[in-house]
Amino acid sequence: MIDTHAHLDFSEFDPDRAAVFAAMAAVGVTGAIIPGVSPSHWDKQLAVAAEFDCYFALGIHPWHCPPVLEPAMSELEALVNRHLGNKRLVAIGECGLDKRHSQPWPLQVAYVQAQLDLAKRTDLPLILHVVKAHGEMLALLKASRPARGGVVHAFSAGPEVACEYIKLGFKLGVGGLVVNPNAKKLHKTLSEMPLDAFVLETDSPAMTPITSAVSRNDPTNLVQFVDEIAQIRKKTNVLISEQLQANARQLFDL
Ligand SMILES: [Zn+2]
After folding, report:
1. Which CATH architecture has domain 2-252?
2. 126, 93 in Cβ contact below 8 A?
3. Known binder of ligand: residue 203?
4. Can you give the residue ranges of every domain in the chain?
5. Residue 162's closest CA among 140, 120, 184, 194?
6. What is the Å distance from ligand 1's center to 245 Cα?
7. Any idea what DSSP says for residue 204?
8. Is 129 annotated as a binding residue?
9. According to the annotation, is 153 in a ligand binding site?
10. How many angstroms does the Cα of residue 34 sit away from the middle of ligand 1?
11. Binding site annotation covers 94?
12. What is the Å distance from ligand 1's center to 98 Cα?
């Protein structure tokens, strides 16, 4: 299994990163995609991805947009172009819209639009972070029509919203929320949408599942997410992990 969204470059993993990768391997989590968050993080992100043989995405997270678009977007495009032949670069992101965050809305829109355009120019899929802004994001995607689609990470909405993204070529990232019995809309989406619409993720070190005894999330938790999805779909966990792994391979061309 591959964790399609894990910030294994974050400082929370500095004390024991090698041990985390060893624990992942022990439970069958053989790799991860490390998403980009901000220009100041890219160097460390690329170093960790190289050291631990991870895939990565390059982008600017809506929480971390520099106050003006330039030179940040030019730097991003130059870095992406430098890595276009690198098999580890698999997406643009994470980028998106977050109405719960205080970043000025016009700035968030400008950055996500610029990254939708970049994904098109570089023929890469997108990793999207969308909080309380599905209507606005869907409108941008309908106007922009990214050729390779992407994933809406940490998806929590119901089947109607899910369907709109799927029609645009997007998959839904499922993580720690799945083991929360109160995540009714997500559970409805998981039981009604086709299995090829989902990929697995943790968003480590954030989004710790309520079942966890420790505060830091890590990719070994994928195992329990698969068990939960298997119960919802009344399938074996082997079938679920194989299908969701195949989805990730297809989406990100792994
Ligand atoms: Zn993230």
Report:
1. Alpha-Beta Barrel (3.20)
2. yes
3. yes
4. 2-252
5. 194
6. 19
7. B
8. yes
9. yes
10. 8
11. yes
12. 12
Q: What tokens were used for 110?
A: 């400008």
Distance from C-alpha of 109 to C-alpha of 232, rounded to nearest angstrom: 36
**Is 134 annotated as contributing to ligand binding?**
no
Q: Where are the alpha helices (DSSP H) in the chain?
A: 17-26, 42-51, 72-82, 105-122, 134-144, 159-167, 184-192, 222-233, 237-252
Distance (Å) from CA 32 to ligand 1 centroid = 12
The answer to whether the annotation marks 61 as part of a ligand binding site is no
Distance 99 CA to ligand 1 centre (A): 16
Q: How many whole angstroms from 206 Cα to the centroid of ligand 1?
A: 8
Task: Please list the pLDDT of the chain residue by residue as tens digits (254 residues).
Answer: 999 999 999 999 999 999 999 999 999 999 999 999 999 999 999 999 999 999 999 999 999 999 999 999 999 999 999 999 999 999 999 999 999 999 999 999 999 999 999 999 999 999 999 999 999 999 999 999 999 999 999 999 999 999 999 999 999 999 999 999 999 999 999 999 999 999 999 999 999 999 988 999 999 999 999 999 999 999 999 999 999 999 999 999 99
3-state secondary structure of 68: coil
Tokens of 35: 């998403």
Amino acid at 205: P
